[in-house]
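Aim 2, interim progress: modelling of the calcium ion-bound target.
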Amino acid sequence: MLTKRSVVITSSAALTAVMHAASPERPNIVYVFPDQMRNHAMEFWNDEDFSRHVKFKADPVYTPTLNRFAREAVVLTSAHSSCPLSSPHRGMMLTGMYPDGSGVPLNCNATRPISNLRQDAITISDVLSQQGYDCAYIGKLHVDYPTKNNPQKPGHYVSDRTPEWDAYTPKERRHGFNFWYSYGTFDVHKEPHYWDTDGNRHDIREWSPKHEADVAIDYLKNKRDASKPFFMVVSMNPPHSPYYSLDDVEEQDFNLYKDKALSELLIRPNVKASLAKKQKSAPYYFASVTGVDREFGRILNALKELGLDENTIVVFTSDHGETMGSHLEDPKNSPYTESFNVPFMIRYPSKLTPHVNPVLLGTPDIMPTLLSIAGLKHSIPAAVQGTDIAPWITNGKIDKNAPTGVLYIRNVDGQKDKEGRVTSYFAVARGIKTDRYTLAITIGRDHLVKEILMFDDKNDPYQLTNLSDKKVINSLVKQMKPLLQKANDPWIREGIYDKVVKQLVKK
Ligand code: CA
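Predicted structure of the complex, ligand included:
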């Protein structure tokens, strides 16, 4: 009798195990991305376990949360924002398509109807929602063309700025996100505002990352549908500018940097004397980073407290970097490493072994890779142009099949209509980042090559010397072609690539 009974129990346990294997519990996904955060602005890069994997020094910044998180995550050294600018990055991240395919080739504002997230595109949130996820978006969105759809003042923009940059995203444009607490773009860090799921506006009087972490924690604890896995995006605006005074940062964070000389904060050999004015923002920029680090830590603590950390994929990244006193006044939208390279760390305790990983990741790769790591490879939409790099993130071995380059994209306004609205975009620069080099070619409206930038990042990580080695340039241009084809880029469609190649041969 006893024996028989124990057999029954064993069978039942075995059956349960089989059922689990057939339909594993889906992991939750938390995606935190502050805006304009340099990959260099993470303290742990100076720790020996990390420093031996990179050629640069970490900024003198305090990031205790990220230091701990890095030891629990796969840390990419070579993640790049394929178009290092707010809206195009966000469009690519959401759709897995390059800016032409996502519908967002330029930064979104009311002069640019050409730049507006395609409503018919299938985003990562559309996929996860269809797969039974509860989906939340908290913070800056910046992929919508602002229209006069102010829910508080019908027939008007959400503010009176000219041109209008901020936007309200109505339900039909939320792509599967059922919990909403977001805005388009707005840069007063201590007076942020948000529209919630029902279109109510909330005007807040505290530092936006702190408030967004509070909303995220409340979502985790009280607001989500606990019967479903969840996908939560937290899109913080700092360390984006403004970073000029205590109106922009928390005083406790500023106090860590206020007594330091700029020469102690800006330690890179490429810091330019001509950018002295910009450099004064360094203590505020680093204070913003430290504040973001703390708020990210609060979200991680909530996951732990709820017992969710083992089965939750957590990503920490940014939409582009910040040159902070080197190369150009413009912090972003350039091929320099400090603009183009971004933090990218992914933690998934039950599936990913923590390590530092040199795989090349471009923004359109994020969506297919995340879906694949979550066990949803079969749900990657056919229209996705990015590559699923999960195999190399999982095993850490960069073999011959791994990506060999990330496309660099810079667009500017093209034609305008009578009202001054931008109706097309111009693909002014294209380039490639490989494991060794950065190349970027800028053209004029006549398609004549205006500038070539090429750096040997291995031997010149601060990009002090623009090289003119024809052999290397031609080889990189060749490597760029399949990436442009994959992106269905105007440089291929409009024959620009061939014209550029002809000019390079003559040079
Ligand atoms: Ca941005």
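The chain is about 30% helix and 15% strand. The mean pLDDT is 94.
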